[in-house]
Amino acid sequence: FDALLPALQSNTIDIAISDMTISEERAKSVDFSKPYYIAGNGLVVNIDNTNINSFKDLEGKRIGVSIGST
Predict the structure, then answer these.
(1) Where would one find coiled-coil regions in this protein (predicted)?
(2) Long-range pairs, 6-10, Cβ under 8 A, ≥24
């Protein structure tokens, strides 16, 4: 993921198709198409966890995220 924008900027690749969120900061260096897919994001928890149902319930919790994602 982290290599996609530099690869576009150096013409190593022509197009990046990925789960990249359009942002003002990224739009300063690359040209985005109109969104081709709109995804609803949600929380994913262990099936036995009944204590986390919303973002409010995340206070004090350990959260895992992908490096370079938005």
Answers:
(1) none
(2) none
| Predicted TM-score of the model (pTM) | 0.52
Point out the residues of the chain with pLDDT beneath 70: 19, 69-70
CA distance 8 to 16: 7
**Rounded to 5, what percent of the chain is helix, strand, coil?**
20, 0, 80
Question: What pLDDT does residue 70 have?
Answer: 62
- CA–chain centroid gap for 22, Å, is 9
- Cβ-based neighbours of 51, under 8 Å, separated by 6 or more: 57
Mean pLDDT score of the chain:
86
